[in-house]
Design a protein that fits this description.
Length: about 210
């Protein structure tokens, strides 16, 4: 009875963490669209509204791209939390740091959408945006490594093979995002393409868990 009560309390703590995280995801993903401003007549000048709307396509691209990125992190957050059986103070702080990186993403998205077409500032915009996309991946792997070390907070039934698979997957993701940042210094366009390809890969269904 005591063991069951303890497991229920741990499960409740994890659910509270998920509920709080869902709220932050919802706010961050909503903030993205607020960066696309509605022009007033004075801003249009002699330009037609249609020409203006077509001219801000980089902002649409940045919005959709970041929306998909945050959406993927939300889906994977839901996926990975089925493996976390309990939480503690350190894990809560790591999750807060992860959410900080998610809520920060609308800012580099706005910079990216504003300056991707500006030859003078394109490189800086892509570098900054690539860093913005990398930060959640870095926080993510920190959470996983802490929770999975010695099966500290995860389901102890998970097989070692599956745990090692996730370790390799998350490490490879971080490495490739770092490559995107480095590539942005040389070729911003190639960096954007690699970031898009990484995002498309994560649209694939995740691997089913394996238990021992």
């Amino acid at each position: 009875m005591e063991e069951r009560r303890r497991e229920e309390n741990e499960s409740l703590s994890t659910k509270r963490l998920e509920a709080f995280s869902d709220g932050v995801f919802a706010i961050a993903i909503t903030l993205l669209i607020l960066e696309i401003k509605i022009p007033d007549s004075s801003e249009l000048g002699k330009t037609s509204l249609l020409h203006y709307l077509l001219g801000i396509w980089p902002k649409y691209f940045a919005y959709v791209f970041s929306f998909v990125v945050i959406g993927i992190y939300w889906a994977n957050h839901h996926y990975i939390f089925q493996f976390y059986r309990k939480t503690n103070h350190v894990f809560n702080i790591l999750n807060i740091f992860f959410l900080l990186t998610i809520s920060f993403l609308p800012f580099p998205t706005a910079i990216f959408g504003e300056y991707i077409n500006d030859a003078a500032h394109r490189r800086t915009a892509v570098i900054f945006y690539s860093i913005g996309i990398y930060l959640p991946a870095m926080a993510w792997i920190c959470m996983w490594w802490y929770a999975s070390a010695g099966k500290r907070l995860i389901d102890t039934r998970l097989s070692d093979t599956f745990i090692q698979y996730l370790n390799r997957l998350f490490a490879l993701s971080n490495l490739l995002y770092l490559v995107c940042i480095a590539l942005a210094f040389v070729s911003p366009r190639a960096s954007v393409i690699l970031n898009i390809l990484l995002t498309l890969v994560y649209l694939l269904p995740p691997k089913k868990p394996e238990y021992s």
